[in-house]
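Entry 14. Ran structure prediction on the chain below.
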Amino acid sequence: MIDFFKKKESNLPDFWKNYEATFSKNAIENIEDITFVVLDTETTGLDYYTDRMLCIGALKLHKNVIKIDSTFEIFIKQEHYNRETAQIHGILKNGKTERITELEAIKLFLVYLENSIIIAHHAHFDITIFNKALHRNNLPKLKNKVLDTSTLYKKTLIKSNLLNRKEHYSLDELTDKFNISKKDRHTALGDAYITAIAFLKILNKLKEKKKLTVQQLLRLG
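Output, C-alpha cells:
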C-alpha cells in the first residue's frame, strides 16, 4: 500500500511538486505577515460535474494592502458554452480574448498561488470547481487553507433574537453594506477586487473585538 502511494506521488508533474514544496515553510501566525490570494472564477454554470471554468481572476493581499501590481487573470478554452450565463459574465464563445488550455491555466495559477491562504465569496463553489479541473487532469486537490467572506461577514453581526441573520449573504449585499463600487462586477478579476475590499473591512470589524491570530481567523471563516 505504501509503495502504491509513493509510486502515485512520483508520477505527479514537477509543477505540482513545486507547488507542494511551498507548504514546507514554517507556519505564520501574524496576520500582517500572511499573503492572501483572493480568488474568483467565472464559469459556464453552477454544476460542478458538467460546467467548466471560463476565467480565473485573483489578486494578492499583504499587510492589509491589495497588490494591484500583481493581479492574475486568464481565460480558458472551453467547448462547453451556456448562452444564459454568458449574458452575466460577458465571456463569448468566439470572443477575441486570448485563451489557454485548462491544464496551462492550472499550472500558472498554482505558481501564483503557492501556499497562500485563499479568500473567496461563497468559497465552496470556486474551490470545488477548481478541484474538479485538477481531477480531470489527474492531480490532487488544492492544499491551501480557505476563508469565505460570506461566513466571515456573519461573524461581525450582533447576536440577537431580534435580528434575523441569513444563512448566506451575496456579494452584492456586501457591496451595499460596505459601500463598495460595483464596477466590473461579474468579471473574475472585478469580483476578486470587490471581495478583497470586503475582506479588509470584515477583518477590521473582527479586530475591533479582539486581536486575531491566523489560526483564530481560520476557525472563524
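The longest helix spans residues 188-209. Will compare against last week's run tomorrow.
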